[in-house]
User: Fold these one by one.
Assistant:
Number 1:
Amino acid sequence: MHTDLVAALDIGGTKIAGALVDDRGHILVRAQRATPAQEDGETVMRAVEEVLGELTVSPLWESASALGIGSAGPVDASAGTVSPVNVPGWRDYPLVRRVRAATGGLPVELIGDGVAITAAEHWQGAARGHDNALCMVVSTGVGGGLVLGGRLHPGPTGNAGHIGHISVDMDGDPCACGSRGCVERIASGPNIARRAYENGWRPGPDGDTSAAAVAAAARAGDPIAVASFERAAQALAAGIAATATLVEIDIAVIGGGVGKAGEVLLTPLRKALTDYATLSFVQRLAVVPAQMGTDAGLVGAAAAALAKGADKAPV
């Protein structure tokens, strides 16, 4: 019945989600485990195998033609390995080989989580109908992915579009990646909150010091909270404009937890973009919120598997 069916894994520092997905992007079967992120690599792999085990007992499993993995990175699709920053037990971990073994040799396609979300937004979400797009995940970190010429562009290792580590402030703070003044160092949720706190913002009675709490304060007109989001918006605008100038995208999609701040982020971002995206061919660049929500990683991993399996992109 379901001839074009694929399996998908979405692997992050908090959860490992799995699904069987049809060729229209509908999730038919789900499984999930918490990521034992601080355990050794084999313990993390056992959680992946448990998720796969739940999928393989479904009667639909025999129709699955391939499996797509969207993983926290860095990933190396050319080697089939992953080294997620927030899963220290996995360094150059042979995830593709292990997943293939656990699924009886199913073809496996590995991409970074930012690329997976991009695939989902282009196939089913906010970038649908756009041939050249940048999709960003602004959360604990800042990731992203590219669609160029109507096709997902993961690059040789599966990390292309990683806008979080474009430097937008040459004399800026050192970033965990080893560079300085990266988009992520300025625009990620923890950095928005840190900057607001350092400049005198204080949480309410609940003690919530998250970027969401800073966003709520900014919505209520707190000038320090507003300024922290404006600085984040400026960094994002500079990174988006650089990307647009380099590869001619016509839409930037903003997702992730910080993206949910809405106009507190998007209004200053669109304004700052007019300062950076000044050349004629980038002036019509649209900035829109993501639409796919929490299933984006799974749907995007499925899109990559479908594209590989059919050798033609649904994305």
Number 2:
Amino acid sequence: MRLVITMAAVDRFSLLYREISRSCSFYMEALAIVGAWYTVRKCVSLALDTYSVLRLHVIPKLSGEIDLVKKYGKWAVVTGSTDGIGKAYAEQLAKHGVNIILVSRNKEKLEAVSRSISETYKVETDFIVADFSKGRELYPAIKEALKDREIGILVNNVGIFYAHTDYFTNLSEDTLWDLIHVNIASATMMTHIVLPGMVKKKKGAIVNLSSGVCCQPTPMFTVYGASKSYLDYFSRSLHYEYASKGIFIQSLIPFVTSTNMVAFSSTVSKRSILFPTAEEYASHAVSTLGLSIRTTGYWKHAIQWTLGECLPEWMWAWFALYLSRILRKEALAAKAKSE
């Protein structure tokens, strides 16, 4: 009797399983199609990303150099050009035969860099002394100095950071105004001065130096990051306004580079596999000119950007806050030790 009941139960279970499988087959097929579609999309996305990396960071290095003078014009204006990325970028443009106009606040450094570039790369150089923290009073003189030049490339590189990573309320009013005048107003007004001439010639390029901290909200970089986010938005929007007029506008978004801007920390100011020198960064960044309107400019930084975008905002912010506190503590300890 027990054997019969057991067999009947097995039969009923087998029948039930067949009925359930039959009714679910449609859903299984639908899920299989969704899975296949997701896989195809990911594969296509990976292929496009790989192609983009090769097009930006590999192919330009293998192919012949682009004639920047013919493509954009004889002269390039580079702001913040006596140190770091600005100086290195100016040298790379000079290497391509472009004449350079350096703009910075230190006359002695300007003279030295101008002479060095002219002698090394056999191009014409000039310089304009300008302290962008002074606000709108200096732009009429800059406009007058540039009015008879054929400006083909403008590199808005000048920028400042805090003395070290810090909380917003610890920043002085002078620091906040300097960040606004130097990081935001300078690029806006320099572009306003140079762009009409480019439009008239129907060719030109403008490069605005943003920062990787605008990838996601970054605490203790708050005002600096916001100013760099402005440049990123400004560049991308302006490109769509003027691309049809032959003007190429690029938002360049580097991550940490070993320059004086990060000298407050011995940890991030040293060259490493993730932190290139300004010269190494600039040699890659210049090769992306004319190819991408928004790029980190360097393949290692591109990997960092991709990883940063994958992180949830809270995780990025938590890690940034943790790291910033360490850097602040390190900077304050070094300052106390030197006093």
